[in-house]
């Protein structure tokens, strides 16, 4: 697992100084409508037992992969600090909800003094931070580590379950999951004749002259495979043996990686806007010569890295549009 080393503050004194200026008692918090002071013991993604508020009121997330579940679980009002935020990674009708919330991380590296100033009662951190960083955050508020990387990376639903466990909202997860699975089943049934026999591949691009290949066991696979698609054998093969079923691949291998796909779904934000690397990839002759592209069967489908149910539903929106177009051919 990749770890991130952040620049530590100049000794414990600096953090103590930050804390001394912003601390408040649990009684004060309760009177102001904050946490009641009651706690729960939970086990986070690392297996550590953490004591967290029973009803957290001031939550900080250090990555959007936790921010989206917070929104999906109806906890937007409790979010007081967040990791790096880009407007395009959230639907336009939700952007106003979070765009003004302070950003308290550089990539995933926490800004400890700014976090302390927010007086959080719960901090959600991805499982890529070093222990010494997590320990410093724990001096501010209870820290719950959620799954971002590793063997369970593809299970974005589990990440929502983890955030729900940390925030005592697990009762809401079953409803979100049932609604999503019902929608997948509905699409699979309505477009069964269109989907049958269709091979699908997913492409991202995050650096110059390379594309990102995804195997069927990754996040987008959990969205598309239940609909009845067949995943590209070439794309599965090119990520075989990777710790996670994904890989950065030279553009020169594009044809041998996804040339067998009937349909392509491309990484974008939640405005169907590609990043600069994906735009450059689409301008190459290798991309334009792909059978799926030649047939007009390539569509933007939202973020390949699924953060939560909002992301997942956006992808299904785009997939439904693609299936409608195919049905009309």
Automatic annotation (TrEMBL):
Keywords: Coiled coil, Signal, Transport. Pfam families: Peripla_BP_2. GO terms for biological process: iron coordination entity transport. It is found in: Cell envelope. Residues 21-40 are annotated as: Disordered. PROSITE patterns: FE_B12_PBP (PS50983), PROKAR_LIPOPROTEIN (PS51257). Residues 166-193 form a coiled coil. InterPro entries: ABC_transptr_periplasmic_BD, Bact_iron-sidero_bind. It comes from the Bacteria. GO terms for cellular component: outer membrane-bounded periplasmic space. The keyword Lyase does not apply. Residues 58-329 form the Fe/B12 periplasmic-binding domain. Residues 1-29 form the signal peptide. Its main location: other. Belongs to the bacterial solute-binding protein 8 family. This is ABC transporter substrate-binding protein. It comes from Aeromicrobium camelliae. The lineage of its organism: Bacteria, Bacillati, Actinomycetota, Actinomycetes, Propionibacteriales.
